[in-house]
Amino acid sequence: MSETSTPARGRPPRLDRERTLRTALDLLRQSGLDALTMRRLAEALDVKAGALYRYFATKQDLLTAMAERMMAGVADATAAADDGDWSGQLRTLARALRAALLAHRDGARVFAGTHATGPHTLGIADTLVGVLRGAGFSDEEAARTLFTVANFTVGHTLEEQAALEPADGGADVPALLTEAVAAGTYPHLQAGLSTLSSTDFTALFEFGLGLLVDGLRARR
């Protein structure tokens, strides 16, 4: 092993972009987005905070890199499900995107606040647009559908993670809704309360995804 690749005895491993990103994702898993600060990240890496700015000029740059890393493998999942059915491929991609966000604590919050343009994120976008263009949708329709699918999936997952992984002291959203409806005169909400207060977010996601696909079919 060369002298440059062996850290001096008693010193932490050499700081680099990859190690910084891995540590940031570990901190996200342990403590959530609100607790992830550049100072805390520097402490975990045993470096001064200023050293981080060599790789990430701002915390937003760090979050963008984290969001890009979360998207690894999403486009591949869609390619593996290539059965010639555009609607099936669209569903597969949306499901893979949701799964990627759910794999990380506050994953949807991280992703929603960024505009990653790395190969993972652009690969997802290119795959979906390509599926739709191949199915006969216009370039404009394909591009707008990309935004629609992404916004629906990220927005859904934001609500899902907020309900299932509330911050310390966070409210029990289903219980609050049940109490509020029961305390007022909302007969239509009362009729659907079991669904409205359900934590079966997969069923809710699949219902919304089905509406989206049905709407696209109606435009063809």
Spell out the blueprint of helices and strands:
Elements: H1 17-31, H2 38-45, H3 49-52, H4 59-70, H5 74-80, H6 86-102, H7 107-112, H8 119-134, H9 139-164, H10 173-183, H11 187-191, H12 193-196, H13 201-219
Helix pairs in contact: 5-6, 5-8, 6-8, 6-9, 8-9, 9-13
Report the C-alpha radius of gyration, rounded.
Answer: 21 Å
Query: How many alpha or pi helices?
Result: 13
Q: Low-confidence spans: pLDDT under 50, at least 5 residues?
A: 1-8
Structural class: mainly alpha
Domains, number: 2
CATH class of the largest domain: Mainly Alpha
* Percentage of residues in helical conformation: 55-70%
- H/E element sequence: HHHHHHHHHHHHH
> In total, how many beta strands?
0
Mean pLDDT: 89
- Biggest sheet layout: none
The CATH superfamily of the largest domain is known as Tetracycline Repressor, domain 2
